[in-house]
Amino acid sequence: MAYRAPLFHQLSPADQFSVLLELPPPERLARMRMLPLDDAADLIQAAPDAQRDELLGLLEDTARYEVKALLAYAQDVAGGLMNPRFVRLRPEFSVDEAIRYLRLYGRDVAQPIGDAYVLDGEQHLLGIVSPLDLFASPVNQTVDRVMTKDPITVSEDADQELVSQIFREYDLLAAPVVDRFGRMKGVVTVDDIVDVLAEEATEDVQKIGGAGALDTPYLRARFSSMVRSRGGWLALLFLGEMLTATAMGWYEDRLSRAIVLVLFLPLIISSGGNAGSQATTLVIRAMALGEVKLRDWWKVVRREFVVGLALGVLLAMIGSLRIIVWQGLFDSYGEHYLLIVLTVALSLLGVVLWGVMAGSLLPFILRLGGLDPASASAPFVATIVDVTGLVIYFSIAGVALRGTLL
Amino acid sequence: MAYRAPLFHQLSPADQFSVLLELPPPERLARMRMLPLDDAADLIQAAPDAQRDELLGLLEDTARYEVKALLAYAQDVAGGLMNPRFVRLRPEFSVDEAIRYLRLYGRDVAQPIGDAYVLDGEQHLLGIVSPLDLFASPVNQTVDRVMTKDPITVSEDADQELVSQIFREYDLLAAPVVDRFGRMKGVVTVDDIVDVLAEEATEDVQKIGGAGALDTPYLRARFSSMVRSRGGWLALLFLGEMLTATAMGWYEDRLSRAIVLVLFLPLIISSGGNAGSQATTLVIRAMALGEVKLRDWWKVVRREFVVGLALGVLLAMIGSLRIIVWQGLFDSYGEHYLLIVLTVALSLLGVVLWGVMAGSLLPFILRLGGLDPASASAPFVATIVDVTGLVIYFSIAGVALRGTLL
Fold first, then answer.
1. What is the residue-wise DSSP string for A103-159?
2. Is A322 part of the contact surface with chain B (CB cutoff 8 Å)?
C-alpha cells in the first residue's frame, strides 16, 4: 500500500515532541491520538521525564494502558518495536464472518499490512490470514482452513538486529511477536525494520570510522554533542598513541645511530594499521549481518592468517623494490642497503600479519566481553597496531643491522 | 503477511542458479516458473552469458518477454528491482467487480502486498486500491471513489539508493514505477528495499574500512578474490604512504640533529589521520542517507572548521601536558622542552584541523567527479593526512626550533 503519509508521521520521535509542544491543546490531543501506538510510545520515550505523564494523559484509556505496556520494553527489542493492536480472529470463524470483521475494524487496526491473526482462547497464535486469502476462499469456509499455519514469529525480547535478520532471511512484511508462553503480544512491521536497518548501519559506520554513534542527522547534530562524541574518541586514541612516543624513547639510541630507520617508520606502521582496518571492518560487518557468529572465530583466524601472509608478502615485495630502485637511482641508502631491504621487508610482513590478526580478532573479543564489535573501529585497530608495529620494526632492525648500522 | 518462504526463494540469485543446474530438467522448469519475475531476472543475470538463453527458454512466452524487458535495466535502478506484474483496475470498475477481479488474479499477481493499481487507457497511474479499501467500501461504489489518489511513484531509472530513501521517508510498502511519460511499468516492494539497504550499507562499511566492496558473504568469499580486493587497496595505500619516506628524506638533516622530533612523529600524524577518518565517515554516511547533498558543502566546511579547531585545541592541550609532566618527572626533553611543547602543540592543531578539512571535503570531491563518496575510506584519508601532516610538523619545527635544537 503506497500512501503519502501526513507530515507529522514522518518526523523523528524527538521532532514530533517539539512540534506537539507548539500546538494548541485540542490539536495536540488529536495528533497524539492519531499516532500508531508504537510511535506514540517512541514519542513519549523521546520526551523529558517530567512531561511523560502529561503526554500519556492525552491518550484514551485503552491506548494509555497499551502504551504503558510498550514503555516497559527496551526501545531496541521486538517488544519495543511492535504495535500491540492487531486484528484477532477465532479459528472457527467463517470467511464471511472474517471479512465482515475486517470491514469493521480493519482500517484502523490492520494498517499497513492488512493481515489478521488467528488465536485460540489462550491467545496462542495458530495462523495468519491475509485479505487475499479471504478473497480467494469460499465464504462459508472456516478461517482455520484458509490461514497460513506455523508462521515465523519473533520473541518479545529479541534484539532489533536479530529481528531485522529474520525479516531479511524470510522476506517478511510483518512478524507476530510472542511472549515465552507463545502468546501473541503484537506485530512488528517491515517499515519499522527499514528504519532499524538504516539506524544500525549508521551506528556501525560511525563507530568504524572512530566517531562514536551520533544519534542525530549530521547537519542537525549540535556542536557540543559533535565535539563531545568525536573528541572523546579522539582523546582516547591519542592517549593510546602516546605509547608510541614512550616506545620510541626505548629506541632513541638506535634511532640516532641509524636515522635511515626513521624514514620507513610511518610507511611500516601505517601499513599494519591499514591491513588491520580492512580485517576488522570485514569481520564487524559480517557479524552485523549474522554471517559470522562467535563460534566461527577459529575459521576466521585461519582464513585471516593466510590472507595476512599473502598481503604481507605483497607489501614486502613492493617495499623492497622501492628501496632497490631508489638505491640504484640515487644511492640513497649506502653500502648496507640490502640489510635495510631485509629489515623493511621482514617488518612489513610481520606488521601486516599482526595487523590483520589483531583486527580480525578484536571484534570477537569485544563481543565476548558483551561489547559492540563495531567499537573495534579502524582508528582503534590502527592505534593498537602502531604501537606494536613500532616494537616489531625496531626489534627486527636490532637483529638484522647488529654490527653494521647498529 | 508472514509466511515461511520455500527454501529456494531465500537463496541468492547465484546460489539459485547453482541449485537449478543440479535439478532434473522438469523440476528446473517448475522452479524457474515459480520465481517472481524480478527474481527470475536476477537469477539469469547471475548466470554465465552462455546459459542465459537456455534459462530464458524455461519461461512461458509472456514471462520471457517480461523478463527480457527487465534485463534491459541496470540491476541497481528501480526498473531492475521492480516486478512487472501487478493487478490493473479501471477507474470505472465497481468495488464488487474489483473484488471479483482480485479473487481471480490476486493470489498470483498482487503478492506480497495485495494492492491493485488503477490505470487509464494510456497506462497512466491514477491511484492505488488496497484490499482493505475494498473491504471498507460499499460494493457498488466505483473504484475511482475508493482509491488513494496521487500516490508516491519512482522513476524507472532512479538509483536504488534514492528509491530506498523514498521508501524510508514515506514509510512505503510498495512504490509504483513509472517511465518518463508517467506510464506504469511495475512495482518495487519493500522486501527488495530491505535487501538494498543491507547491501548498500555493507558496501559502504567495507569501503570505509578500506577493503573495497566484497560482493559475497565474508565466510564464502574466495581466497583469491579476498586477496585481490584487499591487496589492491592496500598496495595503493602503500604507494601513497611511500611518499612519507620521500618526504622524511627532505628532513633527514633536521631529524639527525633533533632526534626528539622523531619521538612525536607517529603520535602527530596518526592524530591527523584519526580526526580525518571521523570526519570522512560522518560525511559519507550523511550523504548515503540523503541528509547531506552536494550543495551543502559550504555548510559542512564551516561546521568542520570549527569542530576541527576545537578538536585540535583539545589534543594540543593533552599533548602539551604529556610533555610537561614527563619533563617534570624524568627530565626527558632537556632545557628547550618548552619549545618542543610549542612545536608539538602547534603541529597537533595544524594536523588535526587539516585532517578534518581534508576528510570532510574528500567525499564531496569524489561525488563531484562522479565517484562513490565512500571510496574516501578511513585509511585513504589517513594516508593523505600522514604525508601532509609530516610536512606540517617539520615546517613548524623548522621555525620554532631554529637556533636552538635545529
1. HHHHHHHSTTT--EEEE-TT-BEEEEE-HHHHHTS-TTSBHHHHSEES---EETT-B
2. yes
Judged by CB atoms closer than 8 Å, whether chains meet at A267 and B241 is answered as yes
Going by the DSSP 8-state scheme, the letter that residue A371 receives in this structure is: S
Give me Rg for the CA atoms of chain B.
Answer: 30
Q: Torsions phi, psi of A142, nearest 5? A: -90, 155
Query: In whole angstroms, how far apart are CA A165 and each of A142, A168, A300, B195, B254?
Result: 34, 5, 21, 10, 57
Which of A361, A344, A356, A365 is closest to A385 using CA atoms? A356
Give the span between the Cα atoms of A384 and A392, in whole angstroms. Answer: 12
Could you tell me the strand order of the sheet in which B125-129 lies? Answer: B87-89, B116-119, B125-129, B148-149
Q: Count how many pairs of residues, chain A against chain B, have C-beta atoms within 8 Å.
A: 431
**A245 in contact with B, Cβ within 8 Å:** yes
Which three cell numbers, joined as nine digits, stand for B39?
Answer: 527474481
User: For residues A256 and B231, what is the distance between their CA atoms, to the nearest angstrom?
Assistant: 34
| Of residues A383, A378, A352, the one with CA closest to residue A242 | A383
Please give the Cα distance from B327 to A172 (Å, whole number): 64
CA gyration radius for chain A?
30
**All three cell numbers of A26:** 485540542
A2–B128 C-beta distance less than 8 A:
yes
Residue of B nearest to A208 (CA): B209
**Nearest residue of B to residue A301 by CA position?**
B219
The string over A358-391, giving b where at least 16 C-beta atoms fall within 10 Å of a residue's C-beta and e elsewhere, is bbbbbbbebbeeeebbbbbbbbbbbbbbbbbbbb
CB-based burial, A257-276: b 16+ in 10 Å, e otherwise: ebbbbbbbbbbbbbbbbbbb
pLDDT digits (tens, 9 = 90+) for A262-280: 889 999 999 999 999 889 9
H or E element in which residue B289 lies: none
Domains and CATH numbers, chain A: 7-72 (1.25.60.10), 87-199 (3.10.580.10), 222-400 (1.10.357.20)
The two beta strands, B148-149 and B154-155, are unpaired
CA distance A12 to B271: 35
Series of mean pLDDT values for 10-residue runs along chain B (406 residues): 53 80 83 83 84 86 85 86 89 90 73 84 91 83 91 92 88 90 91 85 82 77 84 87 86 82 89 91 86 90 93 94 88 83 95 95 91 82 89 90 76
Q: DSSP letter string over B217-279?
A: -GGGS-HHHHHHHHHHHHHHHHHHHHHHHHHHHHTHHHHHH-THHHHTHHHHHHHHHHHHHHH
Q: What is the dihedral of CA B163, B164, B169, B170, to 10 degrees?
A: 70
Please tell me which of the candidates B103, B195, B198 has its beta carbon nearest to residue A136: B103
Nearest CA in chain A to B326: A246
Is B266 in contact with A269 (CB distance < 8 Å)?
yes
What DSSP string runs through A243-269?
A: HHHHHHHHTHHHHHH-THHHHTHHHHH
Using a cut of 0.80, tell me whether the model's pTM lies above it.
no
Assess contact for A296 and A373: CB atoms under 8 A: no
The DSSP-derived string for A268-311 is HHHHHHHHHHHHHHHHHHHHHTTSS-GGGHHHHHHHHHHHHHHH
Question: Min CA distance, B315 vs chain A (Å)?
Answer: 7
Q: Does the beta-carbon distance from B275 to A234 stay under 8 Å?
A: yes
CB burial of residue A315 (10 Å; 0-12, 13-18, 19+): buried
Say which range, A149-153, A227-231, B313-317, has the weakest mean pLDDT.
A227-231
The answer to whether A132 faces chain B, any CB pair under 8 Å, is: yes
A28 touches chain B (CB under 8 A): no
Count of residues for chain A?
Answer: 406
- Measure the CA–CA gap between B168 and A5, rounded to whole angstroms: 11
Instruction: Collapse the DSSP code of B311 into the 3-class scheme (helix H, G, I; strand E, B; otherwise coil) and give the result.
Output: helix
CB spacing of A190 vs B191 below 8 angstroms: yes
